[in-house]
Amino acid sequence: MVQLFSQTKTHSNEIPETIGSFFLFIGILLFFLTVAAYGGLAILTKSQENTAQTLKDEIAQKQAEIRPEFITQITTLEKRLKNMRELLNGHTAVSNIFQMLEADTHPRVQFNNFSFSAAGRRVDMDGLAASYTVIAQQVSIFEQEPQIERVEFGGLSATKDNFINFKISLIIRPSLLKFQLIP
Fold it and tell me: Which fold has domain 95-177?
């Protein structure tokens, strides 16, 4: 019986030597790759810091090259331009009305008198047309103009030369009175 016990195989918890060596090799390899990556990042960071410092030095040098009086002139000019924009934005541009009338007047209509009220945005005109049909066409043209809010006409009378006198009033949109800045 003693022999039976000595012949039994005992299982060992040992890892074969080849597998252990493989894992040791992989571990060492990962360690060196990590150290190399860290070193590479440290070198890259230092390089980026040097580049940033070089750029800061160049900016400081360029700023020193610019004359202070030139900077003062630029600042003064900028303030003047800002004030000019504010002044022009508050300015009533009546010339825009004339441009609109020039573009929208029927070829067989003549306007004789012109009156403008900025507060009411109202344009009153006396006109002379070749016929009632021409007056109707002129009113239609003004009604289709997006810069005109309302059109009123009346005072129709025939002249001895077979022309028609009329009065027309236009209420214009505030945007037409704004000075148009060129960007």
Answer: Gyrase A; domain 2 (3.30.1360)
